[in-house]
Specification:
Blueprint: H1 4-7, E1 20-25, E2 30-33, H2 35-41, H3 45-48, H4 63-74, E3 79-86, E4 92-102, E5 105-111, H5 117-133, H6 138-151, H7 157-175, H8 184-223, H9 229-253, H10 260-286, H11 298-327, H12 330-357, H13 366-407
Antiparallel strand pairs: 1-2, 1-5, 3-4, 4-5
Helix pairs in contact: 4-6, 5-6, 7-8, 7-10, 8-9, 8-10, 8-13, 9-12, 10-11, 11-13, 12-13
C-alpha cells in the first residue's frame, strides 16, 4: 500500500479525448461541472457543488500563477494556463485550462496537455514555487513568471497563452487521428510576430551601445582640438540619429496600435479566441452525452457554451480584420527602418573617411571605426531577419484569413 508521499507521485489517468468543464460564481465557488471533472477529481458531487474551486488546487502549484490569472479574469480577459490539480486521494493531474469570464462568474474548459511546452512550464513553476517558499509574494511571483516566459521567447503572457493553447490543441488533434494542422497558419503568424517584437526590443539595447560609440568619437575629437571639429560633428549626428531610432522604435515600431507590437497582440488574441471557441463548441456537444452534471441543466450549459463560442468567433473575426490592416503597414515600417539604418551607415562612412585624413595627427579612429562596422553589420543582419519575418506575417495572416472564411 502506498503512503501519502508516494500517492502524491501518482498521476490520475484520463483520456486525451476527454474535456473538463466547471462553472463558478464570481468568488470561484463551483456551481456546475461535467462528469469528467467529477470523476478525475475523485470527489462526489455533494463535495464539489458550492465548494471553492481551490478545493482541487495542488499544493505545489505556484501562487503567482493563480494571482496572474485572477487579475486577468477579474479584468474580463479570457485566460489560459497550465494547471496541476490534486484529486481527493492526493494524486495529481495536469490540464491546460481556458478560463472564460461571464456575467455571473466564470466557466472553464480543460484538456490534457501533451506538448513539450508542458515540460518547460513545469521547470518554470518549480523555480517560482521555490522562490515563494523563500518569501516571494504572489504578485512578485506572477511578475517573475512573465519575465521567465519572455526568456523562452514569449514577449507577453497573451503570446504565451495563445501559442500554448494552439500547440496543445494541435497535439491533441494529431493524437486523435487528425492532421494536427488546425490554425497552423495563424500560429505561424503569431510566432513570427513575436520574433519581430523580440528583435526590435533587442535593437533598443543595441542603440545604447551606439550612443557609447558616439561618446568615444567625441572624446577622440576633443583630443584633436580644432582638427577634431568634423569628428565632433560626426559624433553629434550619429548620436542624434541613434536617439531618433530609439524614439521611432518606441513610438512607432513597437506601438500596440500602429506598430509591430499591435500586430503581435492582434495575432495572439485571434489565435487564442479561435482555439477557445473550438473547445467551447466541443464542450457544448459533449453535454449531449453527459449523464452526470452535478448541479446544472445540460441544455442550459450547452446554450451558455455555444453563446460564448459564437461570441469568441465574432471577436476572432474582428481580430483577423484588424491584423490584416496592421500587417498591411509592415512594408512602410520596414522602409522607415531601412532609412534610419542607411543614414547611420552614411555617417559611419564619413567617420572612416575622416579617420584616413587624420592619420598624420597620431590620433587613430580605427578602433572606433571597427566598432561602428560591427554595430552596422549586426543592425543589417537584424534588419534582414525582421524583413523576412514581416513578410511571413503578411503571408500567413492573409492565408489564415482566407482559410478561416472557407471554414465559416
Amino acid at each position: 500500500m502506498l503512503d501519502a508521499a508516494q500517492v502524491q507521485e501518482v498521476e490520475v489517468p484520463f483520456g486525451i479525448e476527454e474535456i473538463f468543464f466547471s462553472r463558478t460564481d464570481g468568488r470561484g465557488v463551483i456551481e456546475a461541472g461535467n462528469s469528467v471533472f467529477q470523476r478525475v477529481s475523485g470527489y462526489p458531487w455533494e463535495r464539489l457543488i458550492n465548494a471553492p474551486h481551490k478545493l482541487i488546487r495542488h499544493p505545489e502549484m505556484p501562487k503567482g500563477v493563480f494571482h496572474l490569472f485572477w487579475e486577468r479574469i477579474k479584468a474580463g480577459q479570457p485566460t489560459g494556463a497550465y494547471v496541476c490539480n490534486s484529486s481527493s486521494d492526493g494524486r495529481f493531474y495536469w490540464v491546460f485550462a481556458v478560463i472564460v469570464p461571464q456575467e455571473s462568474g466564470y466557466l472553464s474548459v480543460r484538456i490534457k496537455p501533451t506538448s513539450e511546452m508542458l515540460y518547460k512550464v513545469k521547470e518554470v513553476y518549480a523555480e517560482l514555487r521555490t522562490a515563494e517558499t523563500k518569501g516571494r509574494t504572489p504578485a512578485e511571483s506572477a511578475e517573475s513568471l512573465v519575465q521567465r516566459l519572455a526568456e523562452h521567447g514569449f514577449p507577453s503572457y497573451d503570446s504565451f497563452q495563445a501559442r500554448a493553447l494552439a500547440t496543445e490543441v494541435q497535439n491533441r488533434e494529431r493524437q486523435l487521428g487528425g492532421a494536427g494542422t488546425s490554425r497552423s497558419e495563424t500560429l505561424a503568424a503569431a510566432e513570427a510576430a513575436d520574433q519581430i517584437e523580440i528583435a526590435l526590443n533587442g535593437m533598443q539595447s543595441m542603440f545604447a551601445e551606439a550612443l557609447r560609440i558616439a561618446l568615444n568619437l567625441r572624446i577622440a575629437a576633443s583630443q584633436l582640438g580644432e582638427l577634431g571639429r568634423p569628428v565632433s560633428a560626426i559624433s553629434d549626428n550619429y548620436a542624434l540619429l541613434a536617439n531618433d531610432m530609439v524614439d521611432w522604435l518606441n513610438t512607432r515600431a513597437l506601438d500596440e496600435t500602429i506598430g509591430f507590437g499591435g500586430i503581435a497582440r492582434s495575432v495572439s488574441e485571434n489565435l487564442f479566441l479561435l482555439n477557445s471557441a473550438d473547445l467551447l463548441s466541443e464542450m457544448a456537444e459533449a453535454f449531449a452525452k453527459d449523464e452526470s452534471l452535478g448541479e446544472g441543466d445540460a441544455s442550459a450549459e450547452q446554450a451558455r457554451l455555444n453563446a460564448m463560442a459564437a461570441d469568441y468567433g465574432e471577436k476572432a473575426e474582428e481580430c483577423q480584420i484588424r491584423t490584416m490592416r496592421q500587417a498591411a503597414t509592415v512594408d512602410s515600417h520596414l522602409a522607415e527602418m531601412r532609412k534610419h539604418v542607411t543614414a547611420l551607415n552614411s555617417i559611419r562612412m564619413l567617420c572612416r573617411i575622416e579617420g584616413a585624413t587624420l592619420r598624420h595627427t597620431g590620433v587613430s579612429l580605427d578602433e572606433i571605426g571597427s566598432q561602428l562596422d560591427g554595430f552596422q553589420d549586426e543592425i543589417g543582419r537584424r534588419l534582414v531577419g525582421i524583413t523576412s519575418l514581416g513578410q511571413q506575417v503578411q503571408w500567413t495572416t492573409s492565408h489564415a484569413l482566407s482559410h478561416q472564411k472557407r471554414r465559416a
